């Protein structure tokens, strides 16, 4: 069997001409016309077989007739059409067509070819000329038209032109060739074959190829592919035995069917089984499948855009196809594939509208419509199924959401409960930890280690909720502890000194080294090595840039320590034959004096390192050395009791002591010399007359030290009898004696302002005393005997040195409490001004002083010498103060200058006063309390108003309560009633009335009058909080050891403070929660107290002559604690004990702390 004779949707070619039948007659006719005419246009409908006719019959016959044939059926997109024609003609006809010549000229210029053309005609066949109209620009098409027109108008005459074009493009082509006579005059139309014609042809072709096809069956099959509109009057296939099938057939579909039939071995045998539909369906599916991933888009394109809802064919423009959402290249591929397979037929839509597409056959429309309906039904079913499943999903999701919400709610409830329990547990754990830290801090305080307590208290997470935190914080801050401990010597210290600027400390030691430290305790010290034995003494130069040391080896060294450079030895002072026990720089820093056990003192010039004059030679070992303030003279003491005052020009002896002189010093003005002696006395000498002015006796043991006060009028002495004394220079009786200490007092020093004295004792403590002899604080922390104590030049720091180490202290302590001191004895009252920035104190003898609340600056005295003050009131928003004496009231400015007229009453009347909304109001209570008169000094008025009598009932007034901040006055009468008036409405009736219950005595009222503080007259150590609503319900405030002296409320009524003869004040919460805050520090009865306007501080006034201001807010206390934390780091063993850390944690945290302060842990 030969190959398949049917090309399918492709045209027949010369190679397949033996299978092409049925068009022989028309082919001969057309060839005859071509031979006669220079130009012939063959047109016909799509699928009529134009290309097959020309390529399979006409052109092969022409070649057989010795004609030359040039076929152009493709127009490459990348080539210009005219260029493509010229190249094709040159290759096929061997005619050179240069760009400058026409085709006729080119042929004429080639004689050999011209002769050949005369003998053998040439045919140029341009197939599918419509491609030029579809895919080329108008310019390209017009160039082709001109070229063709020249070809047919000029010789050679034997060049014939044949144009093939689809019928639907004919109009557009005619428009392009209008006016070209030769191109437009000859037209031949080729129509479709009928069913009868093509049936016979395909049977013949099949027979020649070895298959015997039944003509009747083929006619029945090919009837299925008839052209639309042909014999459509009845539905279904025609009846078998029909004698004629005049309907026209689309050749491409006939070829498709026949090719498939041939591959299957031929058509069915029976006419009833003859149908083309299944073959075409398979062909359609195969074609669509060949598109690969574009199969589904192609199917959608066919069904959605080329089939109407009624199943008829619908037109699709190329532009509309490109708007379907596909890439333009994909659209082009789909359309070209479907058009090439004859599934789509493309037609011209108009002159400018482009092409349109429609399905190539009705059976396609029918089948695609069926599939579309089937797809739509399936999609509808799927949508219904999807909707049903979606509904079920939504129901399930709703159920799951409800279940999830229920479970989430349950989880949240459980989580909330767990969080609450966790929070309670954490809070309880935190509270327990806080209580443990507070207890640990209290234990440290009891063991004399207060320096570690601030850090522990700061570790408490919730101080407000930790019972006892505030009270302990105040107590801790009331202690004095070193800011820095200077550790590093390997043996006992012998001496220590501040640099003049207070920024450095020098220490001398038995280990032969002198160390220079930063006074703030940070960083590593400078180590000065040179002595071969003990260093006994050390001193700074006045500029602080040099240090002189003296030791047992009899040598003095002078070191340069300026800046951050390494210390430099600048002088070695050699010459003494025994130990140097004392050294001193001259005030100008150019000389050094040394005193030695070799019974000599020497004066050295630092620059030359030589003795400036002859050596002072004494008769006994020397003990001390000092320059006078001008640097002209030197004083030294000796073991035989002699004191030497000497200079370059003179030398004098002060004789009188019967024991060794332990210390000799000049007064600040250089006019006096004081000497302390082992004979238990101190002598004061005139430095000029060299005569004794006073002998200060009274000590019971060796006097170890003596120091002049800055004013030069007083001296302080220290003794091994464990006391220190302060004397007026010319008075043999001491002003006061302090002590006894726990051991011998070895040193004493005055503060630069002369208001305090510090003593150093062998009991390991230094104590600070006021100039009046009252202890101001104890500096505890050393474990061994002290060797010295000193103030920095600015008075801000204190240096103590003991046999174990040196410590630097803040002289003012932590600032808690702020201590306000006067010189007039016991205080009776203290109160804040309206903004809490100032405090007014009143002494029992009537002196009123105004202090800054932070303790800075000097106080101003507001009272007059001859008129004692009994009460005072601050102006609510101003600076003035109202003062009340026993018989008068007046206003003064902050400097005590009177600024108002005086109100004077009889001396036996009791006066009180306070500022009210309209001015100052004064109340005078008659003797016996039988009458109360009110006077007003309005704002800006020059005189007091006429008195207003207040009706307080028949019972006598026994007490008056008045507070400026409350602007209310209360009178307690003997019948137990309390009447209250607003200060701005004195002519009205009382606003509140209290009645005494069960023998209670009211001592204070809350600003809102909802509660009062009362004492039980049978037990004055306790107080009661009583409410106005139910006076029988009382809150007992019981903690004082002695009688309560006073009580008052804070402005917000949340706290009440009580004072007592036990020397304390206690702040209580009015709601009864927590323990009271004990304000401890006064050394005598506390007689009065007042809250600051914000309630965050309390000022207390005491019979010890001081007022103290105490912070109560956690925030302020934490700030103070943070500032009080020393730069010393808690050792690992203490961290393990008090911070509950492991050994490794304690070591690492200790080392980290040391490094944070610039210190090497290994050297500590």
TrEMBL record:
First and last residues of every WD repeat: 486-518, 528-569, 573-614, 615-647, 654-695, 696-737, 738-769, 1037-1068, 1079-1120
Keyword Membrane: no
InterPro entries in UniProt: nSTAND1, P-loop_NTPase, WD40/YVTN_repeat-like_dom_sf, WD40_PAC1, WD40_repeat_CS, WD40_repeat_dom_sf, WD40_rpt
Novel STAND NTPase domain segment(s): 5-226
Membrane listed as a keyword: no
Region described as Disordered: 374-415, 1140-1164
Keywords from the UniProt entry: Repeat, WD repeat
This protein's name: Novel STAND NTPase 1 domain-containing protein
Species whose genome carries this gene: Sorangium cellulosum (Polyangium cellulosum)
């Amino acid at each position: 069997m030969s190959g398949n004779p049917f090309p399918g949707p492709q045209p027949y070619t010369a190679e397949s001409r033996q299978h092409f039948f049925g068009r022989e007659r028309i082919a001969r006719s057309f060839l005859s016309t071509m031979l006669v005419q220079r130009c012939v246009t063959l047109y016909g409908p799509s699928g009529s077989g134009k290309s097959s006719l020309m390529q399979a019959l006409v052109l092969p016959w022409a070649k057989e007739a010795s004609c030359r044939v040039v076929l152009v059926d493709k127009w490459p997109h990348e080539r210009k059409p005219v260029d493509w024609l010229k190249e094709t003609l040159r290759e096929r006809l061997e005619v050179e067509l240069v760009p400058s010549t026409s085709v006729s000229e080119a042929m004429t210029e080639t004689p050999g070819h011209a002769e050949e053309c005369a003998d053998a005609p040439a045919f140029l066949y341009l197939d599918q000329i419509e491609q030029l109209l579809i895919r080329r620009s108008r310019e390209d098409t017009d160039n082709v038209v001109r070229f063709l027109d020249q070809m047919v108008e000029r010789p050679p005459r034997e060049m014939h032109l044949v144009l093939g074009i689809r019928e639907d493009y004919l109009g557009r082509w005619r428009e392009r060739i209008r006016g070209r006579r030769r191109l437009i005059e000859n037209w031949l139309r080729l129509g479709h074959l009928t069913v009868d014609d093509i049936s016979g042809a395909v049977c013949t072709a099949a027979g020649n190829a070895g298959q015997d096809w039944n003509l009747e069956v083929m006619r029945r099959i090919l009837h299925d592919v008839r052209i639309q509109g042909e014999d459509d009057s009845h539905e279904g296939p025609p009846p078998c035995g029909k004698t004629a099938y005049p309907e026209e057939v689309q050749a491409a579909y006939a070829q498709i069917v026949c090719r498939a039939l041939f591959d299957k071995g031929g058509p069915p045998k029976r006419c009833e089984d003859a149908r083309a539909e299944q073959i075409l369906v398979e062909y359609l599916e195969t074609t669509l499948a060949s598109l690969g991933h574009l199969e589904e888009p192609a199917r959608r394109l066919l069904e959605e855009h080329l089939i109407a809802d009624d199943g008829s064919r619908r037109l699709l423009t190329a532009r509309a196809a490109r708007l379907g959402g596909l890439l333009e290249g994909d659209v082009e591929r789909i359309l070209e594939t479907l058009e090439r397979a004859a599934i789509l037929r493309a037609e011209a839509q108009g002159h400018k509208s482009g092409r349109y597409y429609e399905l190539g056959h009705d059976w396609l429309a029918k089948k695609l419509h069926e599939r579309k309906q089937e797809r739509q039904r399936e999609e509808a079913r799927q949508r219904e199924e999807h909707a049903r499943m979606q509904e079920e999903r939504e129901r399930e999701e709703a159920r799951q959401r409800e279940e999830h919400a229920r479970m989430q709610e349950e989880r949240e409830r459980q989580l909330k409960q767990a969080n609450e329990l966790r929070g309670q547990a954490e809070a309880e754990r935190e509270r327990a930890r806080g209580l443990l830290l507070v207890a640990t801090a209290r234990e440290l305080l009891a063991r004399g280690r207060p320096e570690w307590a601030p850090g522990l208290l700061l570790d408490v997470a919730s101080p407000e909720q930790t019972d006892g935190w505030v009270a302990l914080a105040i107590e801790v801050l009331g202690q004095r502890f070193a800011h820095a401990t200077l550790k590093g010597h390997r043996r006992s210290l012998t001496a220590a000194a501040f640099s003049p600027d207070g920024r450095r400390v020098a220490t001398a030691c038995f280990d032969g080294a002198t160390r220079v430290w930063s006074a703030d305790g940070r960083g590593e010290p400078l180590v000065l090595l040179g002595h071969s034995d003990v260093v006994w003494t050390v001193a700074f130069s006045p500029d602080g840039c040099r240090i002189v040391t003296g030791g047992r080896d009899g040598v003095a060294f002078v070191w340069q320590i300026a800046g951050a450079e390494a210390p430099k030895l600048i002088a070695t002072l050699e010459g003494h034959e025994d130990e140097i026990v004392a050294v001193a720089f001259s005030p100008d820093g150019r000389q050094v004096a040394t005193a030695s056990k070799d019974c000599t003192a020497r004066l050295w010039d630092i620059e030359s390192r030589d003795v400036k004059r002859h050596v002072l030679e004494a008769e006994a070992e020397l003990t001390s050395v000092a320059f006078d303030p001008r640097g002209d003279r030197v004083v030294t003491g000796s073991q035989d009791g002699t004191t030497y005052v000497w200079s370059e020009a003179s030398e004098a002896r002060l004789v009188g002591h019967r024991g060794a002189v332990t210390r000799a010093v000049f007064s600040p003005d250089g006019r006096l010399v004081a000497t302390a002696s082992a004979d238990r006395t101190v002598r004061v000498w005139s430095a000029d007359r060299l005569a004794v002015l006073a002998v200060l006796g009274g000590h019971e043991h060796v006097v170890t030290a003596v120091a002049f006060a800055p004013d030069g009028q007083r001296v302080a002495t220290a003794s091994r009898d464990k006391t220190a004394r302060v004397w007026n220079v010319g008075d043999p009786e001491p002003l006061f004696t302090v002590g006894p200490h726990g051991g011998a007092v070895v040193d004493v020093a005055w503060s630069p302002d002369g208001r305090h004295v510090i003593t150093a004792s062998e009991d390991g403590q230094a104590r600070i005393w006021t100039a009046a002899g009252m202890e101001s604080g104890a500096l505890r922390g050393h474990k061994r005997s002290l060797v010295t104590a000193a103030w920095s030049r600015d008075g801000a720091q204190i240096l103590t040195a003991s046999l174990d180490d040196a410590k630097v202290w803040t002289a003012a302590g932590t600032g808690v409490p702020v201590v306000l001191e006067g010189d007039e004895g016991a205080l009776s009252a203290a109160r804040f001004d309206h903004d809490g920035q100032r405090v007014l104190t009143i002494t029992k003898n009537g002196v009123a002083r105004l202090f800054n609340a932070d303790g800075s600056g000097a106080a101003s005295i507001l009272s007059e010498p001859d008129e004692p003050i009994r009460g005072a009131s601050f102006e609510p928003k101003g600076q003035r103060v109202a003062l009340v004496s026993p018989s008068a009231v007046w206003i003064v400015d902050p400097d005590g200058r009177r600024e108002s007229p005086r109100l004077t009453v009889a001396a036996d009347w009791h006066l009180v006063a306070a500022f009210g909304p309209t001015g100052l109001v004064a109340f005078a209570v008659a003797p016996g309390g039988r009458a109360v008169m009110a006077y007003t000094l309005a704002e800006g008025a020059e005189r007091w108003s006429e008195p207003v009598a207040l009706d307080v009932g028949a019972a006598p007034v026994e007490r008056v309560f008045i507070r400026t901040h409350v602007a209310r006055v209360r009178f307690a009468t003997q019948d137990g009633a309390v009447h209250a008036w607003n200060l701005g409405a004195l002519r009205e009736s009382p606003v509140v009335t209290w009645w005494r219950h069960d023998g209670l005595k009211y001592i204070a009222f809350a600003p809102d009058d909802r509660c009062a503080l009362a004492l039980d007259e049978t037990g004055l150590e306790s107080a009661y909080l009583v409410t106005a609503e139910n006076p029988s319900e009382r809150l007992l405030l019981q903690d004082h050891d002695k009688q309560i002296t006073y009580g008052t409320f804070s402005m917000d009524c949340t706290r009440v403070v009580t004072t007592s003869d036990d020397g304390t004040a206690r702040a209580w919460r009015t709601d009864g929660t927590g323990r009271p805050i004990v304000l401890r520090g006064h050394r005598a009865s506390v007689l009065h107290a007042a809250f600051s306007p914000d309630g965050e501080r309390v000022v207390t006034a005491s019979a010890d002559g001081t007022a103290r201001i105490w912070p109560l807010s956690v925030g302020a206390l934490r700030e103070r604690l943070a500032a009080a934390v020393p730069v010393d780091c808690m050792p690992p063993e203490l961290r393990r004990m008090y911070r509950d850390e492991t050994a490794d944690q304690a070591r690492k945290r200790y080392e980290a702390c040391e490094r944070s302060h610039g210190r090497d842990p290994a050297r500590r």
